[in-house]
Amino acid sequence: MARKIFSLLLLFMAFITYAQPPEGITYQGVAYNQQGNPVVSSTIGVRVSILNTTATGTIIFSEVHSPATNNQGVYSFTIGSQNTQDFAQIDWGNQNKFLKIEIDPSGGTSYSQISTTQLKTVPYAFYSKSTAKAGTFSVVDNISALRNIQNLPNPGDMIYVKGYNVPGDGGGGNFVWRIDPVFQNLGTGTPGVLSDDNNGTLIKIAGRNNGMWVRQYDGYINVAYFGAIGISQNYTQPIQNAIDFAEKICVIPNNYFGSSSVFIPAGKYIIDNIVLKHRVSVIGESMEKTIIYPSNSSHPYLVSIEPGRIELNISNLAFVGAYVGSGFSGNSSKGVINLSASQSAEFGDGGVWDSTFKNISISNFKGIGIYLLGGTTNYMSPNQFSLFENIKIVHGTDLDSTNPLRIEGQNGQLTFINCEFIGGNSTTPHKGAGVFIKGHRPNGMVLHPAVVTFLNCGFQYSNYGISMDYAESITIDGCSFNRTGIGINVNGNTNACSGINIINNKFVDSAGFGNLSLGTGYIKSNGYCISSTKSSLTITGNYIATSVGSICTSCGFYNGAGTSTVKIAANSFQNAEDGKTIGVSKNVTATSFVLTTDNDLVYLSGSGSSISHISSRINSGGVITVIAAGPLVFANGNIKTSGGNISLATGEIIQFKKTDYQSTIQYEVISVVKNNP
């Protein structure tokens, strides 16, 4: 039976320190037995190996130790103390090195592997003491000086750079001269993936193509490494260089570097436009500390994406459109984040997939805050399976041509949690929609947003909190709507919206802006919390409140005039006048013996013939209430009465329950209310 061994993971739960060469590396860990209990006050067996290039590469060093654990299972030893000769011969400056730890908790030699982890930082002492291969150690003031070193380096030479431009500006660090093929461009064959100088992590010497100064770092890729030090200057190129470098190290065969996440520290950064790349995360310090401003360039958006399928993680950033130092004052006319999908030649499809956007603030921009544009001509460019959390967008104009959030074309499985979409303020609300959702149907194709969910979000100071035009399966749950002309507008005039679920929300002064005094262009009369045309909706569990006496006489809770199908129930109102509805009950005329309706309450007129059939898409078990708008006769067909025909006079009521017993659809009469029983 294989022995099950537990140990705290190297680098995360073990500790490594570096002794003076040739003494080695001090390692400390905790040993556990197969029951998961610490192996205390015992001698255990440990085999240590150092591998070249990869986690499964050639073993270039190995030794065994027999450390004793203390009463908590902690053990320690010095790597290199048992096999000093081989340890001293390790060429730390050539290829990556990986540390493999194997233990036998019984103290024998039946080792089981615990971990294999890359040694990402190696002290200069190991370079300088490990034979003449390592070369020399020097210090220069900045990146320019590093690039202009006259003495030709040897593999393993290390240089400490004091700063990017000036000492102490945050862009300095340690560099090692590497001659691995990935860093070379010898003019024959394919250049190495990392053979270009990127002004940050890879620095070339003029006239030298056989190697590269390679920055040594742990953790995120700091944009300060590329000269973006956050002092209100234009950092478009440095930030783009960091993103491009992160994309490259995602695909190189050996893990020469660590994280592919780009970090933007606290500071103020002006940009023209940056292009986000596949699998690259961009992380700021926080929404309050990492602030990005627009330049006065002609780029319509600050952020866009490359063609093809893109996976992203963007977080902890603030985009602010009003900043005098960026070349203009007042709100910027630009948009901010443009997630417009486009196909790539390499894979054929495109779009933002499996991505997260979290803790992002956008304010003072007149353009679209976040634009999710999926395919509008074919099915190859969807935006889907992505999460937006804690996003706050305050729009910078009252014009209706742009929106804080726009979702258009082929989009699916999008979730918005704890987000705010604010059109303006109480003096000048936005004349458009806080969120605009639009579909397309070219040549009969269905390219519309579907399965989009808003949870615990806020919408305020817009003519429309949310407006949609051809969408399906949109869920708005637990959200708040405040000071809107119409809270939610569902427009199916061109193509019907279906599966619109409006549940458990709160509407405050969301029909005609309540008691706000506004100028022209705002919906003050005929305002409703929810309005729909030619669509199907479920509206349940909502609470509606208005300032006392603020709701206009033509305003109310729901307006479904037209042919919308609505299931509306269990909503509550602070004031009686808040509950006004139009179109919940429909006027229907039966034709050819058939009552056709998807509504559960209808005023029915007959065609002079008895009605023997009902056609409806309500669920089995659902109830249809019919109020006679004139004389009616119901006969047996798929309608089941307890006896013969049922005649109704004007104003009398009959109810049917839909059943599907043994796959046969029937509508059973469950009650009849007569004028003179």
Automatic annotation (TrEMBL):
The keyword Signal applies. Coiled coil: none annotated. It comes from Flavobacterium microcysteis. InterPro entries: PbH1, Pectin_lyas_fold, Pectin_lyase_fold/virulence. SMART domains: PbH1. Keywords: Signal. This is Pectate lyase superfamily protein domain-containing protein. Residues 1-19 form the signal peptide. The keyword tRNA-binding does not apply.
